[in-house]
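Dear colleagues,

As part of the handover before I leave the project, I'm documenting each prediction I ran so the next person doesn't have to rerun anything. This entry is a single chain, and its sequence is reproduced below.
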Amino acid sequence: MRHLTPAEFRRLGHRAVDWIASYAERVESLPVLPQREPGELLAALPERAPEEGEGTDAWDGIFRDLDQLIVPALTHWQSPNFFAYFPCNASGPGILGELLSAGLGIQGMLWATSPAATELEFRMLSWLGRLLELPDGFLEAPGGGCIQGTASEATLVAVVAARHRVRQRTGARREQLVAYASSQAHSSVVKAAMVAGLCADASGGDALRLVAVDDEYALVPEALARAIAEDRAAGRVPFFVCATVGTTSSTAVDPLPAVGQVLRESGFAESGGWLHVDAAYAGAACICPEHRRLIDGIEHADSLCFNPHKWLLTNFDCSAFWTRDRAALVDSLSVTPEYLRNRATEEGGVIDYRDWQVPLGRRFRALKLWFVLRHYGAEGLRRHIRHHVALAALFESLVRADDRFEICAPRRLALVCFRRRGSDAENRALLERVNRSGKAYLSHTALPGPDGAERLVLRLAVGAPGTGERHVRAAWDLLRE
């Protein structure tokens, strides 16, 4: 076996960077959705790994297969014509940070296993938190921030920390615990309840209450208050509330000040209850002063997360998570075998981020965030957000001007929810025709209509780094055609 020499690696590395740059230049010309059938790539790949490596002779074939097999089977998330789900931004600085992180190859589970990884991450979460104008309690002891892989992981660790804290304070049994979220909250809340052993399946049972929403799809505080009172009367113990700032379906915003008031008046906080704020998409916009109001009331929360990998040009995966109670988090997740013991940890003067997450291992994700923040600066990132919000406002105006279509939810930020006036079947067919064309990619959701019945709604989310006005207008023309 022979490893690449530094000279060989340098040559192939240059070739890989050139390939990425060329891909960025041509991604707009590629069909956004792959024009492939299920199993087509699988059939083109050998069933077994090669017994003997081809060494440097393999690389012409590898790059050829990358172009001929892999790229045609990709959904191109960085295409300026990608309008589905929420964005998953990549950028040159983020890619370089990811490359250097891979090249350094460190495992940052403990401060002792790479002090730079821990301390840079702590400082980057402080930088981000100050851009959001978070209270100091989220930025320093007894709180602090860290990078999770995804918002789903952030929700899970918040549930685990909340479960630990409330059981310590009240002695409640696991089967007594109840969590709450709106009916529009992300599915990760249900999954977190399942993984934490609170419920057996996605129904949630008695362990997870999905609270009613108003006409704008935001949680109704009075309904939350009633649910908490009912559960208390039945001998259950409310322990966790997830409020969403920017729901996946419609970017609805749960009213944090009113939710905080309900939790204070109900005695929820005094018994150890935990309020988590999921701002996975919308949190990025809060670096803009005009959008900071979206998280007004954050002082009532015990934890908050948002994903720089969605809308802040930081390659997946990078989910920023803050808590005001790091002790509950660490106490609920810390397991220390002998082989992880070290002097710095024992003396208690450092953070070991392995205790803030489910996995033990940690990549050096703070490096790419550092590169992005230094390259663009706060004002550059604000311009990025504002550009997309303006493009979404343009698309909304085009929809409103055509009486064949209707807006289905208030537009917040860069997501427009709309539909053709007609049946769900007609809207589904329209969506499929647009997506099959390869010229644009939109997604859909289901939202209650004026009569309360759910209906299929199309979603256009502006957020790819290269998207401009001509791409938005082209998507609208395609829908009209």
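The chain has 15 helices and eleven strands. Residues 435 and 441 are 5 Å apart (CA to CA).

All the best with the project,
I.
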